[in-house]
Structure formats: C-alpha cells, structure tokens
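for the writeup, i need someone to sanity check this before i put it in the appendix. the sequnce is what the collaborator sent (i think, or maybe the updated version? ugh). structure was predicted straight from it, no edits. if anything looks off just tell me and ill rerun, i have time this weekend
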Amino acid sequence: MHEQFKQVGRDLFLQNAVSSHGGNISVRVGDRIHITRRGSMIHNLTENDIIETGLNEDDSGIALASTELKVHRGIYKSTTATAIVHAHPVNAIALSLDQDVIVPLDSEASYVLHKIPVLSAEHTIGSEEVMNIVSDALKNYKIVMLRGHGSFAIGNMLEEAYQWTSELEVAAQIINIVRSAGINVQEYRKDSDKYEQW
C-alpha cells in the first residue's frame, strides 16, 4: 500500500496537481481508512505518513490524519469507492473560479469524464458542508471540483482515482490554452450539445 501512495503522491506533484505539502489520498479497507498524514510531503511519502483510523469512529490515528478526513469518510459512506484522491490541480482551479461546470474540449476527457461539476462552499477545507456536497455529487460523477480549492476523485484503487484527476487537469489545461490563444473551436464530437446535461 505504501508504494501505491508514494507513486500517486509523486505523480500528483510532478503533474503540478498539488504543492509540496498539498492534497491528500486515502484507501478504504473494510471499516478502516488509510489516509495521508496531516502536513505530509505528498511527493515523498514514507510509511509513517500513512495513518490508519476508523471509518465510523475516531481512534488514536485521528490526531495525525489529514484535515480532510471528514470529507473522505463522507465519500466512503455515500459511494462504493475504495480510493480517493484530493488534489489542487492548477488549471482546473483556475477554471473553477468562473465556471459552474467544466466541459472538456478534447476527445479523451470528453469520453472519460463527460463533464465535471464545480461546487461552492463557504468553508472549503475539511468542513461538514464540503463533506455533504462532495459526497452527494460523487454519487453521480467520478470527479468533482470544489471552487477555488481542488478536486475530489474516486475509484476502486488509487491509480483509477489518480487517472480521473490527471485527465481533468490535462482537459483544463487545454481549455485554458484555447481561451488564452483565442482559438475558435470547431466542434467535431457527435451530440456535443448534450455534454453539459450528462
């Protein structure tokens, strides 16, 4: 498990999807959660940076667990996910500041993600409000954006949740390049007018 955490943490950092100590990742095993330590260096995780605690109840691990533990717990209780990646992808965050939904322009992200809802919360870090809105949205999506903060992606394993995170950031980067270059996009996808309704 440590190797999976280490690899995903490093890849998130290399993709500019987190800062040195940003983001958090977790895996659910039965009624236990393995989650990154509060303030850990996501790109250089050691075995001591993975904290085990309860899904439903606090125990000794709670003091060291990520500040987003409440959100991870809520997601696990509301979905069938067994892995979560929470990241701060730069291009996606930029788009979230003025979009209510991110609709990819590229073929791959269109096919894989369709659209990514952008959610708003007054208290964006580890709050009950975030837990409720993110958990609810992830019943219908693989990944969601919290405006100005970052993404939450779910999967059956960390690699899958990372895939959606990576896919979102590449799609957001393409959108930002197209916007900044003033490119007039020629639509090439069948039924693209329905993408925002998916």
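Residues 2-183 form a domain with the L-fuculose-1-phosphate Aldolase fold (CATH 3.40.225.10). The mean pLDDT is 93.
thx in advance!!
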